[in-house]
Structure formats: structure tokens, C-alpha cells
């Protein structure tokens, strides 16, 4: 089994934070190893010196009290060893719980923090189910490395080699024969460990796919029901479950074969010990009591081997999970195309313009989204980006805060390429109202206050932002007002309410650049009027770049950028573009015909 110490340095780092528990665990496990070595000797004394009347060794005979009360003292010794062993086991379990939870928590926080640093492309590539699986299930599996590693290193190995040394001192040839089992076990272990790890890793992959299907189904349940897709999704879910089960069966098969091979070897070893022991007694090399010690030691040696067998599968599975975790942690934003320059500086306050200069972008080599896109947005302007679905409109918005970076070309902020700025300083100047409803599992107050994460927001600021966003009234009707918990397990908001909460968050952020992605989609007329009134307040004194099909927003824009096939095909104001009777004219006619049937 591959267990390079440097590979698991992260685990050691988190363990080191609990030095006292780690030290106590060390003493408990080493203590158990020492107790296992001395455990059979009281029985040997009783058997040889009391039952078989063998001469008591001089070192014991010269102490008359010990010689006279040997039986009672040996019984006390056996009881004391059992009590100390129980106490050590209790301490071991207590320390292991603390240490395992420390490692799981540390890894989860580290992986989650790193994932949040990665570009959006990572989530698009891997999928939410796979990401969740690595943050939760894979980190939980690492407990086996802590438990198995500690027990094997501090108890099993010291017990095995300590007993072997004592056996060598007692009877060298006898000990050598018994020890010959160890190399055979090592070969068997090496053969099975990689196969167990391989199938365990594949099983974890399939479980992440199962989680992705379940998560998607929960999120799109209405759609599944209305389209009658239950059977299709169930079939897909069942396929991934079957693949996971098959991998689990393969791993279980190898684990079972390994356990069986170990049992055969140990049974063979027991037979050899008995046979050789009888021969050595007849030859006068050992006493019957010492044979009992050898038998006890062989059982004690059997325990470390059994533990090794037990933890082999668990550590192999945990190692597969650890590999999946390190895969995430080794990915950098640069690997995904969004890299912060070493000499990046803080972005100065936005003062003049945002310029797209021959920007091209593609998600992969065979899928070009934008081609030679160029336009300028001056400070205080409202720019609408229009076009058919899939034309690349939302991609343009995603490039400004550097969720993605252009494949070629530049985006300039006041004449400077945004790649020259620190990402966090660039994003501080941007507020986003997305198309989807992003509500955090937190109170209403916290959901709005998240617009300003760098400072403590007072209650009056949040309430003022909510009032400007036309959200205060519906918030006060919620069960606990601003303290009402939203999201899963809490109160669910309507589309219009969620949108107004987004606007309140953006108002509180008070960023000079505002990005709007289909801000009125999916709203009923009343909610739309409430939201539009809030948008009017939000857009005051700000630079607006928006993607929208909402006619009043488009028509009132200072500039309209028309995208078709990933390219800018028209650019100008509403009236000017209508007079050209080109792409925008046809787009406007279609939109107006939908809004006012029979108009054209």
C-alpha cells in the first residue's frame, strides 16, 4: 500500500494543532503495545512454577514474599494489565474522535475556501455534484487515515516488532520460523492494496455522479414532473447506482480475498507454532509455560495483522478520497485561464470608461462564443446588450468581473487592461443583479448586508436599501421581519421578492459599475412594476451594462450593442438602429409583436 508520509502532510498539519490529544493518543497506543508484550508472562509463571513445579528463578526466589504469594500476585498482575488496557482503550477512542474531527473540519474548510477561489469554469467543467462530493464525502473518508495510521504506527507495528524481539531472545530458531510469515503477508498486502484503491476511487466518482443527479432533480423537480421525466431520471440514477455497486463489489471482492488469504496464512502459522513448540519442549529448549507465551504472542501478533487487514481497505479507500481532494487543491486559477498577475495593483476608482478591444472568447477549442467584440461604455451611461439566446450576451457580462478571461483581446478600465488589477479590487467596483435568484441560507438582514462584506453594516443602512428596493413592506410581513431565515429550511421568496432583495444588496454595495442579466425575466406585471421602480433608483449615477429583452430598458439605453453569432453586428441608439432596419429592427419587431399582439 502506498503511504508516503510527505503525501499526507496536510493531515499532519491539522493533527499538530491538537498536540495534547496527539501526545495522549501516542501514550495510549504505545502503552497498549507494551501491555500486550507483558500480558502472557503472569500465566507462564503460574503454569511453570505452580502447576508443573518447575524451579522458581533465583531473581524471584530470593524475595520470599513474592515466592510465597506468587499465585495471588500473578492474578493481581493479570487484573491490573486488563484495567490498564481498558483505560488506554478509553483514552485512545477519546483522542481519536477529537483528532479525526479536527482533520475533517480542517480539510473541509481548506477545500471549500480553495474552491471559492477558483474560476466559474471549474464548476462548469466538474459539476456541482462532484464538487459537493469532494467537500463532504471525500473529506469524511479521511478519518480512516487518521485512525488507521495512528493505530498501525503506534500500536500494531510496535506490538509486532516488540513481540518478535522477545521471541528471538526466548528461542531464536523458533522465532525465525514464526517471523517467516511476515514477508508472505507483505507480498499479499502489496498485491491487493492497489486494486482495492483503484475500485474505491472509481466508486467515489460514481457516487459523485449520483449526488449530481439527485441535486439536479431536487432543483428542477417542477420541470421533471411537468415533463414526465421521472422514469428517465430514475433510470439514469439507477445506472450510476449500478456502476457504484459494481465498483464496490470489486473492491469488496479483493478485500474479502485479502482477508481470506491472511486467515489461511495465520492458521498455517498457528499449526507451525504448535508443532514446532512440542518439538522444542521435547528437546528441552523451552518450557510448556514458554510455549504458552509463544502461543499468546502469536495471538498478539495476529491482532496487528488483523488490524492491518482491517485498515488496509479503509486506508485504500481514504487514500483514493485524499487523491481526489489533492486534485482540487492542486488546481490554480491560472490552470483554468483566470490568473492574477504577480505585479497586479489595486484598481483605482472607476472614472472614465470600460472598453472591449477585439475580445474573443471560447469555452473550449471547438466552441467559440465571442469573436472580435469591440465597444465602449462611458461612465454614467446605460448600455444594453441584445441578441438571440446563445449569442454570447451573458458571457460579455461574465468577462468584466473576470469570472472568465478573454481568449484574446483586452478589456480596459480607464485605459488599463483589467488583468493588471487585483481581482478582488476590481470586483469591489462592480455590483451584479443576476438572472437567477441567489438567496443565501441566512436571515433577510444578512442576505442584504452581504453586499458589503468588508465592513459592519448597521440596521438603518439595510432598511434604507430595502426601502429603495421596494422590499421593506414584504420583509415586514415575513414571520420575523429582517430576522427571518431564507433559503432551504427557511422561507422561500417569490421571484419578484428575491429580485428586490438582489437590488437592495446592490444598493447597499453602492458600486459605480452595475451589471444586470435579464433583470425582469420571469416576473408577473405587478412584481415587474415594483422591480422596475427599484431599478430606476438603483441605476441613478451608475454605469450600467445589461442584458435584457425588456423593451423599455432597451429603448432608454444610451447605447445598444447588438450581438449575433458572437459578433457585434450593430451599435447605436434605439432610434438610429430602427432607422437602419437591420438586425436590431427585426429583433425589436419580434419583441414588440410578442408584447403587443397584432401591432405588426
Provide mean pLDDT, rounded: 82
Beta-strand share of residues? 5-15%
Helix content estimate: 55-70%
The biggest beta sheet is recorded as:
6 strands, mixed
CATH class of the domain at 5-334: Mainly Alpha
CATH superfamily of the domain at 5-334: ABC transporter type 1, transmembrane domain
What value does the Rg take, in angstroms? 36 Å
Total helical segments: 24
> Distance between the terminal alpha carbons, to the nearest Å?
74 Å
Written account of the structure:
- The protein is α/β, with parallel strands linked by helices and 600 residues long.
- Among the domains are: 5-334, ABC transporter type 1, transmembrane domain (ABC transporter transmembrane region fold, Up-down Bundle); 439-510, 3-Layer(aba) Sandwich (Rossmann fold), CATH 3.40.50.300.
- The protein contains 24 helices and ten strands.
- Helix 3 packs antiparallel against helix 6.
How do the helices and strands line up, and which of them pair or pack?
Elements: H1 9-16, H2 19-38, H3 41-51, H4 58-61, H5 64-68, H6 70-117, H7 120-126, H8 128-141, H9 143-170, H10 172-179, H11 181-219, H12 221-227, H13 230-282, H14 288-330, E1 353-364, E2 367-378, E3 382-387, H15 393-399, E4 408-413, E5 416-417, H16 423-427, E6 430-433, H17 444-449, H18 459-468, H19 472-476, H20 495-509, E7 513-517, H21 525-538, E8 543-547, H22 551-555, E9 559-564, E10 567-572, H23 574-580, H24 583-595
Parallel strand pairs: 3-8, 3-9, 6-7, 7-8
Antiparallel strand pairs: 1-2, 1-4, 4-5, 9-10
Helix pairs in contact: 1-6, 2-6, 2-9, 3-6, 3-14, 6-8, 6-9, 8-11, 8-14, 9-10, 9-14, 11-13, 11-14, 13-14, 18-20, 20-21
